[in-house]
Specification:
The protein has 123 residues and is an all-alpha fold. The protein is 67% helix and 0% strand. It contains seven helices and no strands. The chain has helices spanning 13-25, 33-40, 44-55, 59-76, 82-88, 94-105, 109-121. The termini are far apart.
Length: 123
């Protein structure tokens, strides 16, 4: 049998992984798409295609997911209130954060905070 051809993106996996690290570390004020591509040594198209191939989303969709999951964890663990969580992950608009959070998790962030409070206050 012949070995299947690997997609051209395989040699970009390390660079895409590095881009992910940059977005995780700098989620509050991430580099723009051209700066991110330059920092990992890819062009804009290679960066976008690499993210699409590896994660099924563009880099900034990936960043939004990172931010929302981190905010969810902060709210659920009571490390932050909703406003603090939003600003800690890089959202400057609370209304935009709330709308995006609700779209992702199906629950309002304030409702999540209250829900968790009820669980804690029973003990």
């Amino acid at each position: 049998g012949e070995t299947p051809q690997k997609p051209a993106v395989d040699h970009h996996v390390e660079k895409i992984s590095y881009a992910c690290e940059i977005l995780k570390k700098e989620m509050v004020s991430p580099p723009n798409k051209l700066e991110l591509a330059r920092r990992v040594g890819l062009n804009h198209n290679q960066l976008f295609q690499g993210f699409k191939d590896m994660f099924g989303v563009c880099p900034f969709e990936y960043l939004r997911t990172l931010r929302l999951e981190k905010a969810h964890a902060l709210i659920a663990s009571h490390e932050c209130n909703v406003t603090e969580a939003a600003f800690n992950v890089g959202y400057s608009s609370l209304s935009h954060f709330t709308k995006t959070f609700r779209a992702k998790f199906g629950i309002n962030p304030k409702a999540l905070a209250k829900e968790k409070n009820k669980k804690f206050s029973k003990h």
